[in-house]
Amino acid sequence: MYNFDYTRPSSLDEALKALSSGDEVKLMAGGQTLIPTLKQRLAQPTKVIDLSGIAELKGIKVEGNSVVIGAMTPHAAVADSAEVKAKIPALASLAHGIGDPQVRNRGTLGGSISNNDPAADYPAALMALGATVHTNKRQLAAEDFFDGMFSTALAEDEIVTKVAFPIPEKAAYAKFAQPASRYALVGVFVARTGGGVRVAVTGAGEGGVFRVGDFESALSANFTAAALEGVAVSADGLNGDIHGSPEYRAHLIGVMAKRAVQAAG
């Protein structure tokens, strides 16, 4: 690990001031990815800004037809939230399946989506539910926020403050997890919303999370697992590694999508 300055601001304004200092800055939310990266000397920031002391970035509330979750809210809080369980139980279930208790109590919603790991769970929820990402500067639809593997539309002087999840009519998430890390080899989030059916896949795409239009069309006509019989996803552009080939992941997408639809009811 290289030397760096560390600061833990108590407000968003303080964090933004530190971010604009001109230094080579890294923001830290839960640190689940950044700390190992620093230990392996794969990053060399001159300053690390720890966002964990900013109370205004934490919390969960229902606003109109949306569940709004602060960026620094830990996964465990989402999993245990009475509001999330009542309004979007699929989201609470997703959060409960992230990593282990240590990861769920340190990792945060904002940190996860800002890192945009291609096997992370939250991106699928944002895409399927049509969530809106709020930053200190603007609001971004999920489709506009995620921008490829480990990449987002965030500017260097931008911090995610909260995410608004529209409440769906039905939704569920099904994940085939890598046993050691519990990252998704394939995770499929299915949601029936007022605007139609949305199906988002994580863990499988070379460019990160993506939607499956053929599944959405089939489920819009008939929201049952049977509607997906004979509808396949091409292996082209899917990940292949020691855990599974592109063809295996393509098959898993269909299996997980059917399970998600069954779970949604």
Automatic annotation (TrEMBL):
Classification via SMART domains: CO_deh_flav_C
InterPro entries the UniProt entry points to: CO_DH_flav_C (IPR005107), CO_DH_flav_C_dom_sf (IPR036683), Diverse_Substr_Oxidored (IPR051312), FAD-bd_PCMH (IPR016166), FAD-bd_PCMH-like_sf (IPR036318), FAD-bd_PCMH_sub1 (IPR016167), FAD-bd_PCMH_sub2 (IPR016169), Mopterin_DH_FAD-bd (IPR002346)
Pfam family, one: FAD_binding_5
Record's keyword terms, sorted: FAD, Flavoprotein, Oxidoreductase
The organism's place on the tree of life at top rank: Bacteria
Organism: Oceanibaculum indicum P24
Domain annotation FAD-binding PCMH-type: ranges: 1-170
GO MF entries: FAD binding; oxidoreductase activity
UniProt-recorded name of the protein: Molybdopterin dehydrogenase FAD-binding protein
PANTHER family: XANTHINE DEHYDROGENASE SUBUNIT C-RELATED
